[in-house]
């Protein structure tokens, strides 16, 4: 099967959507399918297995208005190439996030010239108006919705102060477009039952239209270390963004409580704005000596970091799936996670659960469980072993790819 996999941005080492593209494309290729990824900045990075299997990358460059080292930059006149660039800048100037729209317009223009090259097109949460042109060109179309960004919008608006509430709402104005487009795509995929319910409600999708395919983890790379090789007092948290949704503030408050009673070191894998809310809170709590922030690490480094920790924490206020939870479980690292979104579904509950669940937005509960686990080696060992079993038994990228191919066939049959 010849597959065009679309991703409007693909953070290579942090962020569920980028991880999804990287691993799914590799496994599809290893199954013998021809895979070409179309991505805007930041571009994905493929491992050697994917390259050996023939995964190809077609770059769909934007003006990269939100990239480092100069986010929200004003491009020079010489950088403008066409009317889509004008739309992209106009969206930024009016406080909107225009990348989903402009990427969809650019990729539709590219695919119009390549109708005979692909059997199916798979969109990764872009859901821009340009996608609606693809079925008219004859392309069977599938889209993955990891979770509706409506939760992100609600939390961002709530956290903003004064007039910034207006700009926070405007930034998420692309959601109206995504809902309209999602309702017109015949085959939709999501990653958890919780996300399926939330997506149907947020985008008014009829029941039965969404197929749920959980995400996977490389259990050979994300593998446990012996207890003796774990760093005493090390806690690891992976947060793809410094946003209220990720709940990092509650973990920082918990670390401050724990640090008052015992040695502890939090390694936070995230891209923090030096003047952003998390950085300010670290200083306000006087815990800078207990917090190390890293970003841009590859999968091997991330796996080694998770496996070196005595405890991992997922403090999110909402997750459509939570790859960090699955990666920590695969490393056999005892996990504390919030009872939010799809997390209980992913980590399990009761006997055999892969994590200790605490209420969201409760720094006291996180601190209590951190103190208990850090002081109880036997509890850590038992929880880590259960977590590893759950990851191996329930999550693999090969299974994700096989189930996704079945949905591609459904889309192709439906378009005939």
Concise synopsis of the structure shown:
With 416 residues, the protein is of the alpha/beta class. It has helices at 16-30, 48-53, 83-93, 99-112, 133-137, 150-159, 164-171, 174-182, 193-203, 248-259, 277-284, 299-308, 323-330, 343-347, 363-374, 377-394, 397-415; strands at residues 2-7, 34-39, 56-59, 120-124, 141-144, 187-190, 210-212, 234-238, 265-269, 291-294, 311-314, 335-338, 356-358.
What does this 3D model show about the protein?
This protein has 416 residues and is α/β, with parallel strands linked by helices. It folds into two domains: 235 residues, Rossmann fold, CATH 3.40.50.2000; 168 residues, 3-Layer(aba) Sandwich (Rossmann fold). Helix content is 44%, strand content 14%. The strands form two sheets. A seven-stranded parallel sheet has the order 3-2-1-4-5-6-7, sandwiched between helices. It has a six-stranded parallel sheet with strand order 10-9-8-11-12-13, with helices on both faces. Helix 1 crosses helix 17 and helix 10 runs parallel beside helix 11. The radius of gyration is 21 Å and the shape is globular. 50% of the residues are buried. The mean pLDDT is 93.
């Amino acid at each position: 099967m010849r597959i065009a996999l679309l991703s409007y941005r693909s953070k290579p080492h942090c962020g569920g959507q980028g991880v999804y593209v990287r691993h799914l494309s590799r496994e599809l290729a290893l199954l013998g399918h021809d895979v070409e990824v179309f991505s805007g900045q930041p571009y994905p990075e493929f491992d050697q297995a994917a390259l050996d299997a023939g995964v190809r990358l077609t770059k769909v460059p934007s003006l990269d208005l939100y990239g480092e080292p100069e986010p929200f930059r004003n491009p020079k006149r010489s950088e403008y190439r066409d009317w889509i660039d004008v739309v992209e800048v106009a969206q930024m100037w009016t406080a909107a996030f225009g990348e989903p729209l402009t990427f969809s317009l650019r990729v539709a223009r590219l695919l119009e010239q390549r109708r005979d090259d692909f059997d199916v097109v798979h969109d990764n949460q872009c859901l821009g108006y340009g996608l609606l042109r693809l079925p008219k060109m004859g392309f069977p179309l599938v889209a993955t919705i990891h979770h509706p960004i409506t939760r992100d919008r609600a939390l961002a608006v709530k956290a903003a102060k004064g007039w910034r509430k207006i700009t926070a709402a405007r930034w998420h104005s692309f959601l109206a477009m995504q809902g309209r487009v999602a309702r017109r795509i015949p085959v939709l995929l999501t990653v958890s039952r919780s996300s399926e319910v939330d997506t149907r409600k947020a985008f008014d999708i009829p029941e039965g239209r969404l197929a749920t395919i959980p995400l996977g983890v490389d259990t050979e790379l994300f593998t446990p270390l012996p207890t003796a090789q774990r760093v005493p007092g090390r806690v690891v948290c992976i947060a793809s963004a410094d946003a209220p949704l990720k709940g990092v503030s509650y973990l920082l408050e918990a670390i401050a409580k724990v640090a008052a009673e015992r040695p502890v070191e939090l390694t936070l894998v995230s891209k923090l704005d030096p003047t952003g809310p998390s950085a300010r809170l670290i200083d306000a709590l006087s815990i800078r000596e207990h917090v190390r922030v890293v970003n841009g690490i590859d999968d091997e480094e991330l796996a080694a970091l998770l496996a070196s920790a005595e405890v991992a924490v997922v403090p999110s206020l909402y997750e459509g799936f939570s790859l960090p939870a699955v990666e920590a479980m695969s490393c056999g690292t005892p996990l504390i996670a919030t009872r939010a979104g799809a997390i209980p579904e992913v980590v399990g509950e009761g006997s055999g659960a892969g994590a200790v669940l605490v209420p969201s937005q409760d720094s006291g509960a996180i601190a209590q469980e951190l103190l208990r686990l850090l002081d109880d080696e036997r509890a850590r060992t038992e929880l880590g072993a259960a977590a590893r079993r759950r990851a191996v038994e329930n999550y693999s990228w090969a299974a994700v790819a096989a189930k996704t191919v079945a949905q591609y066939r459904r889309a192709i049959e439906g378009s005939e």
